[in-house]
Amino acid sequence: MKNKIIAGNWKMNKNRAETESFFAELLPLVADTRNTVILCVPFTDLCKAVKSAQGTNIHIGAQNCHWKESGAFTGEIAPSMLVETGVEYVIVGHSERRTYFGETDATVLARTKAALNAGLKPIVCIGETLQERQSGKTEEVLKRQVTEGFADISAEELGRTVVAYEPVWAIGTGVTATDEQANDAIKYVRSVFAEKYGKAVADKLFILYGGSMNDGNAANLLAMSDVDGGLIGGASLVPQKFAAIVHSHR
Ligand code: PGA
């Protein structure tokens, strides 16, 4: 059986001092886990997070990167800038980026490709809105996001990529997908990857669930056959809660 990936997404939360105390509390709580633990923090907290996690089992990620190496892109951060900061992972195409910042499948692909070229491991987010689910379009949307968002990603590159299925209606709402809804959607996503890359590659791919996962529902979600881990927003801000999620799969 695969170990799980438990990734936190702090979004736009915590300053440097809070970052330092978070890691001081979290480190001893998760030191003995077999699961892969990742924390994706704001750009300004990256240096502090990388330093705090040095020599531990915790990996650090950013929450976005640009597709160009340098240039006139005010407010953006290049993948190589993250690499030189000691960052290993980067979230790409989170639904908040798609909703508020005009991210499309094409820009998600460009950012993913650039992250991979720089040696980062992208955590690529996909997922349907409530309206899309209610009108029976979940599979159609997921298929489009995978087909277009991974258009020229090779099998080797996919092997360095993590996918997060995050139904938009479950993010930050307190409404979690049921264990079956999460598993069924992830199974479907895996089947779309299998069509293009073959079953062996698709089976190896880590596909996480995200959307109101917490220390109360994580054990059951993580016990589902196709759920390879979690991408956790709100509950990743509190060390004890995040550690409980990490330990909910042993
Ligand atoms: P949530 O966020 O756990 O607060 O719902 C998940 C995410 O957006 O990655």
At CATH's second level, what is the architecture? Alpha-Beta Barrel
Helix content: 40-55%
CATH homology superfamily:
Aldolase class I
| Sheet with the most strands, sense and barrel status | 8 strands, parallel, barrel
* Alpha-carbon distance between the two ends: 11 Å
**Distinct small molecules bound, one entry per kind:** 2-phosphoglycolic acid
Question: Radius of gyration over alpha carbons?
Answer: 17 Å
Please outline the helices and strands.
Blueprint (H helix, E strand, L loop, with lengths): L4 E5 L6 H15 L5 E5 L5 H8 L4 E5 L16 H6 L4 E4 L2 H6 L4 H14 L2 E6 L3 H5 L3 H12 L5 H4 L3 E4 L13 H19 L1 H6 L1 E5 L7 H5 L6 E4 L6 H8 L4
Parallel strand pairs: 1-2, 1-8, 2-3, 3-4, 4-5, 5-6, 6-7, 7-8
The structure holds 2-phosphoglycolic acid.
Task: Summarize the structure in words.
The chain is of the alpha/beta class and 250 residues long. The chain has a single domain, classed as Alpha-Beta Barrel (TIM Barrel), CATH 3.20.20.70. The protein has twelve helices and eight strands. The chain has an eight-stranded parallel β-barrel with strand order 1-2-3-4-5-6-7-8, surrounded by five helices. Helix 3 (79-84) links the parallel strand 3 and strand 4 (89-92). Helix 1 runs parallel beside helix 12. The model has no long low-confidence stretch (mean pLDDT 97). 2-phosphoglycolic acid is lined by residues 9, 166, 171-172, 210-213, 231-235.
